[in-house]
Amino acid sequence: MRLLHASLRQVRLHQHLELRFDPHFTLLGGANEAGKSTVVEALHKVLFLRASATGRAVDELRSRLHSGLPEIAVGFEAAGARWELRKRFSGASGTCQLGSDGGVALQGAAAEEQLARLLGVEGPIEGRRHGQLPQRWGHLWVRQGESGSNLLAGPGEAYDLKSLVQQLQQRGAAAALESPLDRLVGEQLQARLDLQFTATGKVKAGSPLAEARQRCQEAQAALEQAQGHRAELESAMEQLQRIGARLQAIDSAERPRLRRASQLAGQLRLRQAQIGPLQQQFAQLELALAEQQALQQQGLNLEAQQQAWQQQLASLLEEQATHQAGCRAGELALLELDGQQRELAGRLELAQQLLDLASLEEEARQLNAHQQQFEQLQRDAQLCKQRLLELAPIDQETVRALRQAEQQLAQAQARSQAMATAVALLDADQSVTVGGQPLLPGETLQLSRAAELSIGSGVRLRISPGGGKANLEAAEALEARAQSLLNLQQQAGVGSSEAAEQIAGQRQELERELARLRQAAGAIPWSRLSEQIGALEPRRERLLRHLERHRQLRQAIAQEDGLPDQRDGLESWLDALRHQSSQAGLRRQQLEAGLQARRQQLADRIAELGQLERQLAQLGGSLAPLKQRQLVLEKLHGTQAALAADLEHRSQELQIQAGELGELKGSLQELLPEASAANQPDHGKENWVDNWIEELIQQLDAEKDGLLTSRGQNEQLCLSLSVEDPAAAVEQCLARLESAQGEREAIERQTLALQILQSLFHRARQEFSQRYREPLEEAIGPYLECLGSRDQQVRLDFDPKRGFGDFELQQGIQRYGFEQLSGGMREQLATALRLALAEVLLPGYDGCLPLIFDDAFTNSDPSRLRGLHRMLGRGLAKGAQIILLSCNPADYLEFATKNGSVITLP
């Protein structure tokens, strides 16, 4: 398949563009935004996008500058014929026409299908599937920015994997990889597994395996239900037995026990009525004895308290005298400390004023230094400005313009030289002139336009170089470029871009130095510098006047310890004075706090003395009534000894009554063990036992009624569950489950065997499939040799499902993954792969395939470009058609002139 020509109408910025492609190599040059990438996209979409497509894929073709719908036509060779294709992208009403020089003329869907067959693809891409467009002939269409990408990292459709495998097999190296029987076995294995599993590996609904598992689940559920019925029947029968035993226990044991307990409860109430008056009399006697003992102990306590308070009163009087003496001493110490603090305050004021004077002098020195520094920075900045004025006003934009003009002049010279005619004078015995200028033997002259050749005085010839108007245009362009460069040089006042760059560098360095000086000057507070220096003298005079008032103190200090005259000494002296002042303040606080505490303690002692005297008076008033109450109690109950003897006699009588009462309670406890104090429902009532026994009888009656009802329900349940034999039903369900499990296990074993067989089959196929990579690696090798290194090899891997992968470059014994390589190396390696793929695929496309590179080699320096030219030359020699689009066509002009044609977009 070979592209011949193309026509674009209303496609983005192109209103009407006609292109004719060289059979071998076409260089399409143009500046950025000239529409080169638009040509690439238009050629791709006219071949692979359906004409009636809608959406983003078509919107990207529409022009925003020219009215009308996109229309693209292309001529190409395929299947031994010349074809003309024309598509008009107008949405659902889009049209497609395809005709050949053999008389074939198709339209619409028929044309789209025939085009797909010629291109070897499944069919045109719909608008809603425009995301698949980049995968169509992705190995042949290299868009801008994709030249360094790993083609093999994508899906196999991106590099025509199916056709590639067929061509590799036809080369002979992989002919034995997959026979028809192998394919048939693989397809049958996959078909049988597809009956059981979905594409994601899950069991397919309705498959034999799913149905067998469903039958197992149903049999398991039936078995669990039958086992539940059997367990329910057994539980109901056991419940009937427990109900019968409980009813018999209620009638034969529980009721007689409660009647006997009721009799014992009556006897217990009678005995409790007899012991009650005795307990009351005993309690009254105990209270009288306790009161006598309490009164006696209270009198002793009051007398002891009176003695203790009298001793405390004497102690408080002594403490009062001590605190009064302490207060007088504290007041004297405070007076002495006041004098010391006044002296320290005078010294502190003197020290601070001396330090302020030293600080003022230091500030004056710093401000004078800042002023000198600022004046020096101003002088340096003025010198930089003077040097900047002496240099020509050249910036980086001027340097770039000069370089661009020099490059354009070099390109124009290359084009003019490529189209000019060379005249060389080997030897002559007469004078020879060309265009009026002498030509000496051994000289060569390049002619870009017609000129007159004179030999001697009698021979005149006119020489016209080939190219006609194009040659003249090249010469005019050369003159225009030279004049443009000369104008720029004259404006800048330099002879070359190198000299301009040197001047621009000097200007930048001076501007940076000037900025640095301004920054340094900005760090100095120069705005109020003179004002600050002028304000220092008044401050100094005020400090000297204040110091004059402390002349006597300064003389006294100088005579005692010596007065510091340096700033550090003054600061140390001031810190020492502040410390002494702080210590004196702390001492004063401590003395004041101590004096306050003494005064507070003295006041507390005076208050305590008053309180103690009042308590002693109250205590004397309390002793008399206490002794009177003791006399009254002795007249009523006798002395404490007589009262204690009477209590002992009554205690013995109560113990006898309590023993008989305990025997009755023990008998009742034997009959009713649950009748403990924690279970007494009416604890505070005398007849709580009778009430509790009555509740137990009611509970027994209610329990009996409930048991009779439950017995009837369980008998009915047993009758309903025993209609069929539950044990037989369980055995039947168990047999069904075992049968279903056996069937399921057989299908699972068969399925597992198929999976293992398929895995082994794939493993064997994959081991043989490694041979696919060998012919492709051999096809890539010669292209790598074009780069000038023979120790570089590529390494690939092949998977029957995923295709080629693990694209690596081997240099010696080292291997590098594709992503580990530099940008330039990735571009060259990817180009070698694309050229090799095209070479392998050529037999399936009439011995030719187009490769289109859109600004593909942005990371290639001149050295790599030479290797790239050699690779492209090998691709052309093998039959590939290469269309290269570049915004720097000068890099490929020589190669294009030798191997094809050049097209320049306006």
Question: Can you give the mean pLDDT?
Answer: 81
SS content category:
alpha+beta
Task: Characterize the overall form.
Answer: flat
Radius of gyration: 61 Å
N- to C-terminal separation? Answer: 29 Å
State the low-pLDDT regions, or none. Answer: 173-177
What is the assembly state of the chains in this entry? Answer: single chain
User: Total helix count?
Assistant: 19
Record field, number of beta strands: 20
The helical percent reads 55-70%
| Sequence of strands across the biggest β-sheet | 2-1-4-5-6-7
Mind summarizing the main beta sheet?
Answer: 6 strands, antiparallel
Strand content: 5-15%
Report on the structure:
Helix content is 64%, strand content 12%. By secondary structure, the chain is an alpha+beta fold. It has a six-stranded antiparallel β-sheet with strand order 2-1-4-5-6-7. It has a five-stranded parallel β-sheet with strand order 8-18-19-3-20, with helices on both faces. A four-stranded antiparallel β-sheet has the order 11-10-13-14, with no helix packed on it. A hairpin with a 4-residue loop joins β6 (95-100) and β7. α7 (396-419) packs antiparallel against α8 (469-492). It is flat.
Question: What key attributes describe this structure?
Answer:
5-stranded parallel sheet, 6-stranded antiparallel sheet, about 10% strand, alpha+beta, about 900 residues, flat
Secondary structure layout:
Elements: E1 2-11, E2 14-20, E3 25-29, H1 36-48, H2 56-59, E4 71-78, E5 81-88, E6 95-100, E7 105-107, H3 108-119, E8 141-142, H4 161-170, H5 180-194, H6 208-390, H7 396-419, E9 421-424, E10 432-434, E11 437-438, E12 444-447, E13 451-455, E14 459-463, H8 469-492, H9 497-522, H10 529-548, H11 551-560, H12 567-637, H13 640-671, H14 688-721, H15 726-769, H16 773-785, E15 792-799, E16 803-811, E17 814-817, H17 823-841, E18 850-854, H18 862-877, E19 881-886, H19 893-899, E20 900-904
Parallel strand pairs: 3-19, 3-20, 8-18, 18-19
Antiparallel strand pairs: 1-2, 1-4, 4-5, 5-6, 6-7, 9-12, 10-11, 10-13, 13-14, 15-16, 16-17
